């Protein structure tokens, strides 16, 4: 080896390639063989490649050793293979322990096919894919399980459900086809449209139609070739009942997703025997953004689809009430309603005579808002975690925090829960008076994944805001007593707490719960790149929209800019350590008794 190195040096000096010679010498100093010095090799693996998540370098090093020892006795090559497996598994465990699930995903994407085909020691470890898979690629669906189709040794390129949905046919790029005993003859259909709230035109759309080919528009480049939108990167198929979505993943595994149909199922079950001539619905806590109009269109579309499916008459009129507090500005939203109503009435497939009337209703949803027994459907999203007031007796017991935190005593958790229990009970009682019997209500709110109040998902995004205030206090910008007297009026419940309150109040029966994790930054990666706005800035902007009025009334307008500049920096620091941060989201569907 040294003789070969000298020949290379001699050639580079003779040709005058001095910069190349310097690079060569530098590379020799970090030679992956390290002269087969065991301590240096171990240091390279366990102090550099694994801690810094350099998986390609790690794989390259192990491949290098495999080539070097390929001519040795079988017992030695077998031992080397076991060492290789152990090191790679240690890499995965290290990544999981440090919260770097993205590196686990990267590992399986780069090496999954080879490992699954060549070594049975890895079969059970592919369950990690199920555990670390995140749903941000397909936010409209929820992962139920992932299936490995036996017989495939190449990436799966085609996938189909049978008519019954009980069997799946799949084909890989090497021509292998696997299927069950049923005839693969019928597929369900589904579509998703994302709307531009200014123009009311579809931004992109995908559809699943028999025989199952998926079509994507050009700007949906995550799933298609931007130069040729009829060539999808991933193929999808939906089962006949429209509940499960099968997606090829570029590997020998293909995930199956469970479609999330809370609104559709809720309205479909309500409309079993048809709808009233005037269908009345309310969206609570919604005036500050145009998403409420998207919600209205979604409901109208679902009602129309249910009527077609069940062959019943579509309502002649939709009466929509958009509610929020009196000091919120309804003007921006209401200015969109004439154009929206016109668009809705001219929507393809809807009866031209169908009318939609939209009005704003100012007031707290902890008070009566509507006439008795007048509403058929009630919806609220990201509002019910806000309490009617800050829990009593927090001033001395929650010092240094603006919300529940790990350092908060038990009395603080109890005070927050007591206030939420009181408010949510009153909310249910009031809505029960306003809704007809058998009416439906769908509520979405941030919560906790367990009864433990100290888990980060329920408080950490607010703790960082508190930390920015404490930093300003430490520098003498804010007074410590002002921070001590400030607490956020919100509560993030767990499903057990919600279920107990619903049962205790007694006016509604629980239809279902759905839970999911939501990224602090809910944008897709391509959206982030196009906008040029970093995640920390967007999260700070969102938090400012939520809390600015409360902070300004307590600390004054002067400090608002600095508070959120500091908050953005703390968020950026946090995201740099955890890669992604999630909130726990709860959707609950209720039926008025």
From TrEMBL:
Keyword Transferase appears in the UniProt entry: yes
Top-level taxonomic group: Eukaryota
GO terms for biological process, alphabetical: methylation
GO terms assigned for molecular function: metal ion binding; methyltransferase activity
Transmembrane segments: none
Keyword Acetylation applies: no
UniProt-listed Pfam families: Methyltransf_7 (PF03492), WD40 (PF00400)
Keywords of this entry: Magnesium, Metal-binding, Methyltransferase, Transferase
Family named by the database record: Belongs to the methyltransferase superfamily. Type-7 methyltransferase family.
Name of this protein: LisH domain-containing protein
């Amino acid at each position: 080896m040294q003789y070969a190195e000298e020949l290379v040096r001699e050639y580079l000096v003779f040709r005058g390639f001095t910069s190349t010679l310097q690079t060569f010498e530098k590379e020799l100093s970090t030679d992956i063989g390290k002269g087969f010095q065991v301590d240096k090799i171990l240091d390279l693996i366990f102090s550099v490649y694994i801690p810094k998540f350099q998986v390609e370098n790690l794989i390259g090093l192990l491949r290098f050793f495999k080539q070097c020892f390929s001519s040795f006795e079988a017992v030695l090559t077998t031992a080397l293979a076991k060492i290789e497996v152990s090191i790679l598994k240690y890499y995965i465990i290290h990544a999981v322990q440090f919260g770097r699930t993205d590196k686990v995903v990267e590992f399986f994407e780069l090496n999954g096919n080879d490992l699954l085909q060549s070594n049975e020691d890895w079969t059970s470890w592919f369950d990690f894919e199920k555990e670390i898979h995140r749903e941000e690629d397909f936010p409209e669906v929820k992962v139920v399980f992932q299936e490995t189709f036996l017989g495939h040794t190449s990436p799966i390129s085609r996938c189909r459900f049978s008519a019954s949905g009980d069997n799946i046919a799949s084909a890989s790029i090497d021509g292998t086809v696997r299927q069950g005993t049923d005839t693969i003859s019928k597929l369900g259909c589904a579509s998703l449209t994302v709307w531009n709230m200014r123009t009311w035109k579809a931004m992109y759309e995908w559809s699943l139609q028999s025989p199952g080919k998926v079509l994507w528009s050009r700007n949906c480049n995550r799933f298609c070739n931007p130069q040729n939108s009829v060539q999808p990167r991933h193929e999808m198929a939906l089962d006949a009942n429209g509940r499960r979505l099968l997606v090829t993943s570029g590997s020998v595994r293909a995930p199956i997703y469970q479609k999330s149909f809370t609104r559709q199922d809720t309205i479909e079950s309500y409309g079993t025997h048809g709808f009233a001539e005037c269908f009345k619905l309310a969206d609570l806590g919604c005036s500050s953004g145009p998403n409420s109009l998207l919600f209205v269109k979604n409901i109208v579309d679902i009602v129309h689809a249910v009527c077609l499916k069940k062959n019943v008459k579509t309502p002649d009129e939709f009466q929509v009430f958009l509610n929020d507090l009196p000091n919120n500005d309804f003007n921006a939203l209401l200015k969109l309603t004439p154009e929206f109503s016109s668009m809705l009435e001219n929507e393809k497939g809807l009866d031209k005579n169908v009318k939609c009337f939209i009005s704003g209703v100012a007031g707290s949803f902890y008070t009566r808002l509507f006439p008795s027994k007048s509403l058929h459907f009630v919806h609220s999203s990201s509002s019910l975690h806000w309490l009617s007031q800050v829990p009593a007796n927090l001033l001395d017991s929650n010092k240094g925090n603006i919300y529940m935190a790990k350092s908060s005593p038990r009395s603080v958790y109890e005070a927050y829960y007591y206030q939420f229990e009181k408010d949510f009970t009153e909310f249910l009682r009031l809505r029960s008076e306003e809704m007809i019997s058998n009416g439906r209500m769908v509520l979405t709110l941030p919560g906790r994944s367990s009864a433990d109040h100290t888990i980060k998902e329920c408080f950490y995004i607010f703790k960082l805001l508190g930390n920015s205030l404490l930093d300003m206090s430490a520098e003498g910008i804010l007074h410590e007593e002002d921070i001590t007297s400030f607490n956020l009026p919100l509560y993030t419940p767990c499903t057990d707490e919600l279920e107990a309150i619903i049962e205790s109040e007694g006016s509604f029966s629980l239809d279902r719960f759905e839970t999911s994790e939501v990224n602090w930054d809910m944008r897709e990666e391509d959206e982030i790149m196009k906008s040029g706005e970093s995640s920390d800035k967007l999260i700070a902007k969102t938090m400012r929209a939520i809390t600015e009025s409360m902070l300004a009334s307590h600390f004054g307008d002067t400090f608002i800019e600095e508070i959120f500049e500091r908050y953005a920096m703390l968020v950026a620091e946090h995201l740099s350590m955890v890669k992604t941060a999630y909130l726990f989201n709860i959707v609950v569907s209720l039926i008025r008794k």
